[in-house]
TrEMBL record:
Pfam families: SPDY (PF03771). This is DUF317 domain-containing protein. InterPro entries: DUF317_SPDY. Residues 61-116, 141-206 form the DUF317 domain. Residues 246-273 are annotated as: Disordered. It comes from the Bacteria. Residues 253-273 have a biased composition (Polar residues).
Amino acid sequence: MAVSERQVAAFADKLAGQIPFDTSPRHLAGPGDIRHVTHGLAAAGWSAVSDPLSAEILLRSPDQRHRLQFDPQSNTSAWWRLRAGPTDTEPGWYAEFGELVPAEVLTGFTDALIAPPVHQQDPWQPVTSANWHRDADDTAHSPDSMCHIALRALSEFHDRPSWHIKTREPNDGPWLGSQIWHAYFDERTPTHLVGAFLTALADRSPLQRGMYDRTGHYNAVNEPSLLSPQQVAGAYTARIESLRARARSARRQQTNPATTPAKAHTSQSAVHR
């Protein structure tokens, strides 16, 4: 199921019809519209396998390895769950995200799943570059101390550390503030995907929200955007087209694999003869 031109146009029209506000910091910007995530995956060839009349959305990747579930009726704090099955060369892994995780931050993760970055980087690098405070014990927190990142074992029964990101209310004296949203990546989640999520999270550029859109917390700052509604809609459409192009390129490479060295050598020998 590819996202249709009508669906893309409908969402672009919605964006173009609202007054955008620059909302920051990103971890308090609120959920935004889930179509940033679902349209991007559909453009890359992911298919919907859930009941179209259900509130739950279930998407599968073309190779059937990855499955993304969005369940707004979940009895837990995780509304998004992504599972990757094991292959002959790679282990399976799991990630989950809370209700108020910004959709545009989540797309940093899903876009990297579709098209991995060319250059790998230390996942902590975008965090420290954005002036988040990095502690010595593999933890970090945002400048406002409301978003926390920790790389630690889930329990004493786990040998390898996993990633835990939580946005909380400000501390009330010695007590931790209540949780606003969370993200979790198990110990087998590819590092470049975690890095892509943290890059989108720590990005200091604001997210665009409509006048009455829900934010994650009243500490979020809303200012009239320098972007026009048409520019916001255009950026969304350009991203969808880019993902479509990446998916087409990947399919072409699978259908027409590069010439093997043995074949290339044979061809060159024939030319010399």
